[in-house]
Structure formats: structure tokens, C-alpha cells
Amino acid sequence: MKDLTPIAITQREFQRRFRGLDPVEVKTFLDGVAEELQRLLKENATKEERIQKQEAQLQHYQHRERELKEALLAVQRMAEETREKARKEADAILKDAEVKAERLLERTNLMLAQIQGRLADLKRQKMLFEGRIRSAIKLHQDLLATETAEDISGPLEPKTQDTGT
């Protein structure tokens, strides 16, 4: 009975027996069973078709999900690589800036030492110049004092030297 179809049900003939079943009633029942079977087969076919479509969609969505997961992982890897690259670049820039700052500091310290040396030389020169000016002033004051003393007492007579005669 596994090949039970609506047509097989409606065309089935039964043997007649004494006091058997009412053939019209049996035929009407079999027609109803055949119609119900036909409806169930159509419904089953429709549902099977919907299941196949949904399975195809499910496979499509699963495929898309895998692709999206792979894309997400790729983006995460790229983001991590970008962060790592940016960190390395920042470290390199910082290291370069530190080296440049050290060089600049060394040059500045050298220039400061040179300026301090020049300042010390200028102070020595100033002190020498002030000493010379003071000596010159002292010399002129002494000359003025001598002239003033001559003006007051008269000309000084030159001292004669004894030649021993």
C-alpha cells in the first residue's frame, strides 16, 4: 500500500460478497479519502518546496555569515596591524625627536660654554682696560698735581748731577 495515490483509491474495486458493503457508500468514502489524500499530497509538496527554498536561503545566509565573519576577522587583523604600525611609527618618531633634542641640547651647551668663555675674556679685558684707565688717570692726576705745585711755588729747578769734579 505504499503506492497509495488518489487515482488508485478511486479506481480500486472490491470483491462482492454476500451481505457485503454498500458499493455507493464505499465509493463515496473512497472518493472522499482520495480527495483528502490529494489535498494532503499537494500540501506536502508545497511544504516540501517551501522547506527546500528555506534550506537554500539558510545555506545562502550561512555562507554570508561565514563571509561576514571572515571579513570581520580580516578587519580586526588589519586594525590590529594598523595600531601596531602606528605604535611603531610613534615610537620611531619619539626616538628620533629624543635624539634630535639631545643633539640640540649638546649644541646649546657647547654654545653656552663658548659664550661663557667669551664673557670671561671680556671681563678680563674690561678689568685690564679699567686698570689702564686708572693708571692713566693716576698719571694725569700726578702730572696735574705736579703742575699745580709748580704754579704755586714757581718753577722747579732742574737738579744737576754731580759729575765728581
List keywords for this structure.
mainly alpha; rod-shaped; 2 helices; 165 residues
Layout of strands and helices, then pairs:
Blueprint lengths: L5 H6 L11 H131 L12
Give a description of the structure.
The mean pLDDT is 88. The protein has two helices and no strands. The chain is mostly helical. 83% of the residues lie in helices and 0% in strands. The chain has one domain.
Largest sheet: none
Report the end-to-end length measured between terminal Cα atoms: 183 Å
Strand content: under 5%
Structural class: mainly alpha
Over all CA atoms, what is the radius of gyration?
A: 64 Å
Q: Report the average pLDDT across residues.
A: 88
When the domains are counted, the total is 1
Number of strands: 0
Uncertain parts:
none
Number of separate helices: 2
What is the 3D form? rod-shaped
Percent of residues in helices: over 70%
H/E series: HH
Brief summary of the model shown:
This protein is mostly helical. It is 83% helix and 0% strand.
